[in-house]
Write a structure and sequence with these properties.
The protein has 293 residues and is an alpha+beta fold. 56% of the residues lie in helices and 12% in strands. It has 2 domains: 218 residues, Beta-Lactamase; 62 residues, Winged helix-like DNA-binding domain superfamily/Winged helix DNA-binding domain (Arc Repressor Mutant, subunit A). It contains 10 helices and 6 strands.
Length: 293
């Protein structure tokens, strides 16, 4: 399992190239997953081989059983990408990008060569991921080196020996949550059936990715709240110490503490912690001193 890698916030990702983020937002606002009908014929699976159906069902089953509460966000996303590789015939590796508001997007890959390819796409702001979002459907290519839709991306990737891709936007009722790129080295590695399987897999995969995102956000919020409570406690203790020293009011002590923070160019909590630590040291030194008499 390759796992996660972090994109430099200054470089484009699969939805941020020159004006690409705006195009992604504008053109995918109304995107909704086409939920697969019940019948096998309507699903387009009647032409699949038994092994292909078995692999798809196995991957969907694993996806449904994914215990995200026990995994980090990156591990959860990597598992989803791994299941896609198992489900889509011909796949050798997959990358998944989770779009985050006001945060660096989370990018994972199942193999080193996938991470290298996706980094190229994000850096130049051109590739199947961007097109999949803009055109609102799966993008496929069996000859990236000669694909005129992405000439810069295709030529660079072909030199790495990778020629085929299936790119899938991950869409929920709330909109686009990310995108997944599935790669293979041979030319024409993915059939039309592979593309359909990818689309079938992308529907529950998008929900799983969104669930992982919500869980991670909840954990971050809980951590932030705990940190805020801890910070508040330190500040209250420092204010109490200053009140005991000066005999002033709580408001006066807090104002003094804020003035010290500004003067020292330190955060309020850090200055408060210093005051508390110093008071503790003095108290210990006093109790450790032998009595005089």
């Amino acid at each position: 399992m390759m796992g996660a890698f972090k994109r430099d916030p200054g470089t484009p990702n699969c939805t941020t190239g020159p004006e690409a983020r705006a195009r992604w937002n504008e053109r995918t606002t109304d995107m909704r997953p086409d939920l697969p009908p019940d019948s096998e014929a309507d699903l387009g699976t009647e032409s699949l081989l038994p092994q292909e159906l078995d692999d798809l069902q196995d991957s969907l089953g694993r996806l449904g059983q994914l215990a995200m509460g026990l995994l980090s966000l990156e591990d959860s996303l990597t598992r989803v990408a791994e299941f896609a590789v198992r489900a889509i015939p011909g796949a050798e590796g997959a990358g998944l990008t989770l779009l985050e508001q006001n945060r660096t997007d989370t990018v994972v890959a199942t193999a080193e060569f996938v991470a290298e390819i996706d980094e190229i796409q994000y850096r130049i702001g051109q590739g199947p991921c961007i097109s999949a979002a803009a055109e609102k459907h799966t993008m496929m290519s069996g000859s990236l080196g000669g694909d005129q839709r992405w000439p810069q991306f295709g030529s660079k990737v072909a030199r790495l020996g990778v020629h085929s891709v299936v790119s899938l936007p991950l869409v929920t009722e709330e909109g686009v949550v990310g995108a997944m790129n599935v790669y293979a080295r041979p030319k024409n590695a993915f059939t039309d059936d592979a593309g359909r399987i990818g689309e079938l897999f992308a529907v529950p995969a998008a929900i799983a990715v969104q669930n992982a995102q919500v869980l991670a956000q909840t954990k971050r919020l809980a951590s932030q709240l705990q940190a805020a409570l801890s910070t508040r406690g330190v500040i209250d203790r420092a204010v109490g110490i200053m009140m005991s020293r000066t005999g002033g009011t709580e408001a006066e002590a807090l104002a003094r503490l804020r003035a010290l923070s500004q003067h020292q160019h330190e955060k309020l909590a850090r200055v408060a912690q210093t005051i508390v630590d110093e008071a503790v040291r003095r108290a210990r030194a006093l109790h450790a001193s032998p009595p005089t008499g």
